[in-house]
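Key idea: predict the complex, not the pieces.
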Amino acid sequence: MVTKRTVRKVVEPDMTPMIDCTFQLITFFMIVSNFEQTKADERVKLPADMLAKPPAVARRNELVVNVGYKRNSTGAAVDPDPFVFWNGDESTRVFDMQRNFQREARLTAAKEGKDKVKDTVITLRADEEVPVGLVQELIRQAQEAGYTSFSFKARNEEAGE
Amino acid sequence: MSRRGESFQKVDVPMAPMIDVVFQLLIFFMLTLRIVAAEGDFNINMPIGTVASSSDELPPLDVKVRLVANPDGSLQQLQFGGRELGNDFPVCFERLNQEIAVIAGRGKQAVDDVVVEIDSDYGLHYKYVLRAVSACAGRFDPKTGGRVTYIENIKLTPPHRPE
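Result:
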């Protein structure tokens, strides 16, 4: 049997459009990536408000306190009482935060001086369904540790939303 | 200037390592991406010495906003001074915003002297208090897309623990 000799060619696909698209994707993800919100806890459902705009300048001395509920996969609270999500510890109750505030205040005073404790802003990221009395209890405990400036976080709600 | 006898050859730059690295970067950014809504904040200054312990100690220019809660944590009544503004959330807070706008319209000097004290029941959901803080702080200006500030001195009362 006689077969015709075939000439084999190396197929070289044009990679340029794929590389173009890939670089576009990388640029997009680099721009939209946000590495600053590391202290935010996703379990906390913040209340929404139209006036809540991100600050123009990031605060230097800030202590973020997340207060929320432990939730299951459907988003329902598994415990009726809220927790403070603090330094990776998920079992801190609101009334146990006194010693944490005092420890942070002592640390700040030792590192930067006592005046810096008053300059530190306690940023409260509280779930919208947390009883406000517990938020007030947190403020009271922080006041007793020497903090005087507080800020309430809210999710930005667009006009007409 | 070309030299005699020189022949040009096509140089194949190996693209495979670059594509590997590019895909690694792409996967990294895709996995680390967290889509979060923009967050803003409301500032409240509460030095421990200025916390009011009872309404008798308030100076005359203090404005009191009272929020009464239902047993389930919802809003039962919003009060501004002695007047009831209702409980139809969020419209009642727009009424509060209009009341505060009247005070803010008296001029900057008058506004600087005003302190709004928000007094709420212990079990009220936090979102109502935050909405009250927002209604006192200012209003959204659709033309500029920014905030028109009304009152900057806003504070919360100490907690009233249920007996």
